[in-house]
Amino acid sequence: MEALVDEFSHTFPAARGVQSGRPCYVAMCPLRLVPKIFIFDGQEVPPELRAQRVLNRTRIPDIVSYLVDNPSDYTLSGITASVDGQVSFEPSTDTGLGQNLGLLSIPMDAKILINDGQHRREAIVQAIEQNPELGYDNVPVLFFIDDGLKRSQQMFADLNKHAVRPSDSISTLYDHRDALSELARNVAKEVKVFSRLTEMERSSISNRSSKLFTLSAIKNASKAMLMKGKNDPITQDEQDLAIEFWNEVAVNMRDWQLALEKKVATCDLREQYVHAHGVMLQAMGQIGADLLFKPKAQWSKILIGLQEIDWSRANGDWEGRAMHHGRISKARSSVVLTGNYIKQQLSVPLTPTEQEYEESFKK
Fold first, then answer.
1. What is the largest CA-CA distance in the chain?
2. Domains of the chain, residue spans
3. What is the mean pLDDT of the chain?
4. What does pTM read for this prediction?
């Protein structure tokens, strides 16, 4: 529905409702009007006098790319705004749906302050500059009548208090645009151990879980193995190679096979062994990046050596590498040093960068 702009007000077709005893209105706003209507109080205003956080501009390019790259297949959630001014609502008498559908008029001199959606607003501005056709699309807006700064600040706190960022695993499971997510899903499906023992929704595993891996860990490890960036394409051959590599790794991990056959509890493996944690999976991904340049006959033979490694957390060699003070570490240095130790056991030479980590560790 198109917004009608006259000499004195912005007028939107809207639905009227009530929240906590206060009137509110839901309208569809053309994207091209968003930068003209909605105000964001910027960085020059002290935090105590603002109703929002300062823009994190590093977030905006990703949203802009998402809109511009998917003009016919994007989903944009609504904006919540407070109107500092007197609004009027004229019910439509011919709808047969009561008095809650009509036209919302907001004076042009009223301030419309965003309570939630400031990053979307800025991304919309930049996206329309790149693709003006987006300006004819709409974004839903929930309008509240402003009761002053204190109320607006409380609205911001309330709107964000219960917001929970989805886990990396479930984002990977549901993202059908991202090639790395597609890779992770296929690896988790086609590698037998992963297909039975992967936590698909959460990025951490509880002590009582029957799972051994997370989908996000498989994604990150496979990304390292194929040396892929965020938006790099992945060929079918590369996907097949990843599946082949992880199947070969799994064949040589006896404890993984025992867990698959339900002959050992996964919680016992997590408690007692390094190979039941993401740091090992990530390290193996990086090792795979070096091995897969060789013919399969060579790298598959090298991976047989995984059977001889002492993966027990009681093995003091893991301290300072996969573990710090007895606790598993996910730090970048831990991944590299864990990979270094595995490479040494497999008689695989270290790269110059890995050698630097090793020398620093030994000091």
1. 82
2. 4-161, 168-362
3. 87
4. 0.71
